[in-house]
Amino acid sequence: MGQVTPLMDAPAAHRRFRIEAEEDVGVLRRAVRLQTAGLPGLPEGDAELVATELATNLLRHAGGGQVLTRATGGGMELIAVDRGPGLSAPARDSLAGARITPAPGSPGGLGVGLATVRRRARIFDYYSDDRGTVVLARLGAVPEAVAWVWGGVNVPLGGEGPSGDAFAVAADGCLRAVLVDGIGHGPDAAAAAHAAILALDHAALSTGTAPEAWLTGLVNGAHQELRGTRGAVLGACVIDPVAGQAVFCGIGNINGRVHTATSSPHLVSLPGTLGAEATPPRIRPAVHPWTRGATLIMATDGIDTRWDPAEHPGLTRRHPTVVAAVLHRDHARGRDDAAILVARATGTGQETT
Ligand SMILES: [Mn+2]
Questions:
Q1: How far, in Å, from the CA of 338 to the mean position of ligand 1?
Q2: Could you state, in order of their start, the residue ranges of all structural domains in the chain?
Q3: Using CA atoms, how far apart are residues 9 and 167, in angstroms rounded to an integer?
Q4: Ligand 1 centroid, distance to 315 Cα (angstroms)
Q5: Boundaries of each PPM-type phosphatase domain copy (predicted)?
Q6: pLDDT, tens digit (0-9, with 9 covering 90-100), for 48-73
Q7: Domain 8-140 - what CATH class?
């Protein structure tokens, strides 16, 4: 077990583009061009085309919205978020694979636009109901994990620049997920969050340890890394699918759930701040059942605590990044950096391509 080199993923924060007028589409397109120019795994123009289609759809069919973007190393992630009336029946049909042939000279329409996005994307998924629509497109290289799928949304206060929130995932036989919130916001909070994420990088190497001991090591390591910074709060979860357990510990204001069809227990954190005191805070790991189809969700305090995936039927079967974007849209407080991390085992939800 300890010989397996875990896949470590620590995504960058998102940048938010508000799409409220035609000129906003151009702003997004130019920013995406700058961020993706010269990426080897990404056909030239694809990211701009996808950005343009997503943003144009927001204007035409939802009265505007926002697009979240982040570089993924070899590519780009784009998430269109709106509070519009939801996708029309023809648009859903086109995403289900039905052929849409617009009349000659007609302006394509939503179905054609999203079908274009889907063809260009390595990962594509969406969720749409009467509270709005979220569309995810990842272009270019994406991390390949066999057993797990994860994602999230991390939007800094103001929509751009460094985020004081951060998350990271290490996947081996178990999934090890960490969400941190550096005290306050801005560059100093981001530096603290980064220090805590480094601790996962170190701890991920000792994957043979039992979850409780591993979490203790992680928290102690993060506490050391955070000395001399502003400090941070942290939630960490080890999911062992063979044991059927999700073991969680939280220090400070991180909340979460292990959501299944039949139960959705809250993940409870102890008060405290890492890096603040001489000695590391005590942890009290809690063990929750992990069943096939379960979804782990963790959120920082930039998200209100009223979120409940059960509000949106079928949501937790969608790509984790879609789940995170829907909950972020509906529950971000708007006064702080806000991040949500979502993970589950592969093969237990919507298969996306
Ligand atoms: Mn916060």
A1: 7
A2: 8-140, 145-345
A3: 9
A4: 25
A5: 144-345
A6: 999 999 999 999 999 999 999 999 98
A7: alpha beta
